[in-house]
Amino acid sequence: MTHILHIDASARPGIAGTDNHGSHSRHLTYQFVSQWQSGRPQDTVTYRDIGQSPPSIINHDWIASAFTPELSLEPWMKDALAESNQLVDELIAADVVVIGTPLYNFGMPAALKAWIDQVVRAGRTVDIDESNPTDPYIPKLDDRPRHAIILTARGGIGFDPGGEMAHMNHLEPNLATALGFIGITRFHSIAIEGQEVGGELLAASVAEAVDKVEALVNELQVAFRDASIPEPA
């Protein structure tokens, strides 16, 4: 059985196509997850809407607690890490992490950055080998194949690799770096562009992105199906 962690980071609560001011990234995550469940109804999904309920920003208490050995944690430290532990547990349990996010001012929304800061954590998702100061970090989430699906929406155009605005896109590269750092290296990205332009350009981009989502779901479901079939002795 495959488990999906579905995260929406858009500040827009509605879904484009059904809401005049709806989110195009939510449209893509809905397409991905609903198609996945249609093909594999036995699989499970955890949903977290960080766009409407953002994670806490890390503070002094969080930092002091996160870098204190488990056996030395005081009660207030455990309280400070409770939210982080829940978010980390959700991430560890996932085989597929589906993140719907807009591109805000050339990077990720503050809510998504807050989530990243809560889950990239020493002792939980990455270990630190103090005996190797030149390369001390050991990812902990590479214990099994995990896939990160980044479904994004951009107001402008040309932000894909090779595009005229690619050098200003700090969303997917940032996510790939942070998730890869903790061991999630199977990275897939699909984007809608031209929301600020609208019209036929946006419509064509939406249609292309939906087609890519459909193809990616089919590809991954075949991969997970084949991985579950034991090899003959």
Summarize the structure.
The protein contains six helices and seven strands, in the order E-H-E-H-H-E-H-E-E-E-H-E-H. The chain is 39% helix and 17% strand. Strand 4 (126-128) and strand 5 form a beta hairpin.
Structural class: alpha/beta
Tell me about the largest β-sheet.
5 strands, parallel
Principal-axis shape equals globular
Computed over alpha carbons, the radius of gyration is: 19 Å
SS element count, helices: 6
Q: SSE string, helix = H, strand = E?
A: EHEHHEHEEEHEH
Physical arrangement of strands within the biggest beta sheet: 2-1-3-6-7
Give the end-to-end Cα distance, rounded to a whole number of Å: 23 Å
Helix content: 25-40%
Q: What's the overall average pLDDT, rounded?
A: 95
Characterise this structure:
The protein is α/β, with parallel strands linked by helices and 233 residues long. It contains 6 helices and 7 strands, in the order βαβααβαβββαβα. It has helices at residues 24-39, 60-66, 75-93, 110-119, 172-181, 199-228; strands at residues 3-8, 44-49, 96-102, 126-128, 137-139, 147-153, 186-192. The strands form 2 sheets. Strands 2-1-3-6-7 form a 5-stranded parallel β-sheet, sandwiched between helices. It has a two-stranded antiparallel sheet with strand order 4-5. The longest helix is centred in the C-terminal third of the chain and has 30 residues, at 199-228. The chain is globular and about 60 Å long. The model has no long low-confidence stretch (mean pLDDT 95).
